[in-house]
Amino acid sequence: MADIDIKDIIKEENLIYTKPKVITDTVMHYCPGCSHGVAHKLVAEVIDDMDIQDKTIGISPVGCSVLAYNYLDIDWQQAAHGRAPALATAAKRLMPNHYVFTYQGDGDLASIGAAEILHACNRGENITVIFINNAIYGMTGGQMAPTTLVGMKTATSPYGRSTELNGYPLKITELIAQLPGVAYVTRQSVHTPAAVRKTKKAIRKGFENQDKKIGTSFIEIVSTCSSGWKLSPVKSNEWMEEHMFKFYPLGDLKDSEKESEESYKKYIE
Amino acid sequence: MERPVKKDFKRPTHINDYPVGPQYEAGHLAETNASWRSVRPVVDNDKCINCLICYMVCPDGTIMKTDGKISVDYDYCKGCGVCAHECPKDAIAMVKEEL
Amino acid sequence: MENLKTNKIFISGDEAVAHGVRLSRPHVIAAYPITPQTITVERLSEMVENGELDSDYMHVESEHSALSAAMGASSVGARTFTATSSQGLLYMVEAMHYASGGRYPIVMMNANRSVALPWSIYGDQRDSLSQLDSGWIQVYVEDAQEALDMMIQAYKIAEHAKVLTPMMVNLDGFILTHTYEMVEIPDQAMVDKFLPVFETPNKMCFENPKNMAFSSQPDDNTEFKYQQNQAMFDAIEVIEQTEKEFGELFGRNYQSMVEEINCDDADAVLVTLGSITGTVRVVMEQLRARGLKVGILKIRYMRPFPEKEIMALSHKIKAIGVIDKDISFGYEGTIFTNVNSALAKSNASIFKKNFIGGLGGRDITKAEIEKMYHDLLAGITSNNQKTVEFFNLKVETND
User: Between 3.40.50.150, 3.40.50.300, 3.30.70.20, 3.40.640.10, what CATH number should domain B34-96 receive?
Assistant: First the structure.
């Protein structure tokens, strides 16, 4: 049996998978099992595949992913809590040939930033919004968010969210999908290989839509927060499948390209 | 019909006359507000058929029916002209205010 | 003979505030979580949900909403509480002016934290010191016990008929909010005796309907502001009276507007605000043991401002230094500006220096404090120092 040299194995044509070029070597501070890690990687892979590293601007939020600028080697700017869509609006309008995306959690986007995202989407800015929804305020220690499910226990709803006191969870994605300025709205997840592949396709589509200048692409990634939910990473994924998907069902809510001329007209008339 | 009544308002002369923080009793009408009117509606009661369309469309509620006749409360009418426009019998004329 | 039962528990500054609020029985709490105030709002949510505290807790979507909601609650006669920090405080600023101009006695806990940019979760006092003009009474506490006690006092002061002004209780972020101490939890019955039920004529009521919080013409605006300013001055007497009553009932005394420590025979005095006082006390004792005549002026209230205490002190001492965990860019530290104004009015000619540091959570060490005292003592005889100095830069500068 001939000796196989390592050089025979590590060949370009044998390469199946590699860390995306855009991801830095900085160790991520996220908790074990956090969906942010996968979401960051997918955004990085899309930027790599499209070869747009030097043309991408990311707007980071206030939340666990405030340090996203340490992990992806592109131009970043941090926004005040909830204001990422405003910064993205300016960046995209002034640099229309760049790819501008916001990366926001549910506290940032659906709570303090609810007005901001609604108006950016209503204006139909040609940006991509990546919305990490884990139904909790992660970074500040797991308090109840507008997206928290009914009966869910959090640091500020220790006995479970009550609709009488705190209303129903906010489906901001459905609200956004009704705006005529929005081109693509989808809800995905990253807890299984199949889901990861679908999410990557969705993010890719979100970025490609910027070239078509058809409006905002809004990609919600239903995610886990093991620290906030006080479950192990594996159990968090199971809990998400059992509870989160029931209320936040996966799939495309709007795809203006797929819809016919006639059905799309109803949004713009 | 009850009409708004302008109430007396005594301006404060001492700091203690001021309420604590900007607040005052509700519904205290201190001024009439017709000063920006440049034309005024004049009703020709011979042409008027008392359909009350002018009363319905008046945005300031200044058209009233007294003794079976339509009349205008000139203390609060702003001269917008909608009553004259809507009157089916052209019974209301918008007349320029005397200076 | 009663059994002496101790009510002391080992809690953090944030938790102490939560207990103080619980004992004050607010009707409404409206707050949005922000580090490092989160523990306070979490404890309060727990207390409301398990029935310990009979209060309506509104989980609002932002700080602006929190204070606006609190104002709405106050306008119908509810005792209200909110809590925030840095970015959150600044987001509420519009509503802060509404609350103070409208004369709503809302009490707020502020965890002093640095303000972006650069974004930082760590403590300094730039947030609240930048809001001295907002019309809120501002007190700064040194430890968790004082934090709890001031929450109770705050309601009594703010709700007093001559005051009716909202009040902010400031705790140093992380240094005080997250460190643990033995804190005595007063008896609810005693607090009820000290702090009566909230009654105010300044609320909506069906029997005598009123319009509240309306606009003003140039003819009246100044008078409302004069009145608001006067209420802040009237608050000084209320503060002193409340402090005296609190001391008599609960046995703890904070000496109201300021606390003077070893100032009577001091040559050099350091002015402190907040938890840094604790460290300065230790250094002061050490220097005293070596025969140096040093003292501390712990400012508790920044608004209303203890002008007369500072003016009186300026005639007794020879040098005064102000530690500012803040900087008003292009000028000097805000505490120094306020102290300096009082000194100018007193015509006392003493050496003064402003020490800027501790920003963005940087520790202020005992060695640095000792150097400050030495600088002040040296300044009495020869003045070749800068008046305003960043005292703990880690790099060389062009100066």
Answer: 3.30.70.20
